[in-house]
Amino acid sequence: MDQTIVMLSVIIGLAIVLLGVVATVIITVARPRMKIKKRIDAIGSLSTGGGLTSKAEMRRQKRIQEKVKSVGSEKKQESISDKISNALLQAGINMKVGMFVFICIAIGAVGVMGFLISGIASPLIAPVFGIVIGIGLPKMFLKIMSNRRQKDFTKHFAEAIDVIVRGIRSGLPVGETLAIISREFTGPLGEEFTMIVEGQRLGMTIDEILDRALKRLPTAEFKFFAIVLQIQRQTGGNLAETLENLSEVLRDRKRLKDKIQALSSEAKSSAMIIASLPFLVLLMLSVVNPGYVYVLFTDGIHLVFIALGIMALGVAVMWKMINFEV
Length: 326
What we know:
Blueprint: H1 2-28, H2 31-44, H3 54-73, H4 80-91, H5 97-118, H6 126-155, H7 157-169, H8 174-184, H9 187-201, H10 206-216, H11 220-235, H12 239-288, H13 290-296, H14 301-322
Helix pairs in contact: 1-14, 2-3, 3-11, 4-6, 5-6, 7-8, 7-12, 8-9, 9-10, 10-11, 11-12, 12-13, 12-14
């Protein structure tokens, strides 16, 4: 009878996990195509006129769209070392790949020791737990740091573009306006433009400089800026007016993101409450009837792991549904 209950629990858990995976795929499969389309539409509004004929303007728009598609669909074969190096760059952490791998191994070892000391499950699961902790926690930390750095960069990026526009209209060369931003702005914005200016002084091409910058900051806003500079260098046109339109697009994107944040705050709060309820109930039961909870963590430990997996999958699906890029 006990084995039948265990098997039934496992089958139900696997079925729910499978349904969650299918739902996640359905939610995320169309995202890359939607991103490319949105970037094309956003960049398409940056046309300047500037004395161009309608035919020439159509050719210019076609180049812009092709450039956006190439940026959105560009996939290079990278080794694990390159991926880790790019993740460290995006997080703004000056660390060698070997040191980061050593830290991951140390975290995994500590996780395995804690798992074995606690004795909450079979020691055979300890290596799996160590791998998950050693890879998951550092990756999550880098993701948080990268998102924070990109958010700090985007916060004042539209203002920096306005400075470039005013500098160009006053007669300053583009390189000098970039140097002004590197001096006047602090944080990730000033650091990135400082690297761009230093790259120009070293004789690097604008394409090489922007490619390296995009590895450090792969945001849609900075990709728009890079595409505008590259298209202007290839086809000419009124750069000041194009950048002014880009600044308006970035501000519209920020307003839309703030609106989405406000509208989805209720759903996020509900998700947090629903996710915390099982743990609160478990805490209350452990206070009222500790023996009842003790049975769950001994004879029914497999149910605990199934429940945690299903909850994690449900939270991931809800997070995907209420967090999406503009």
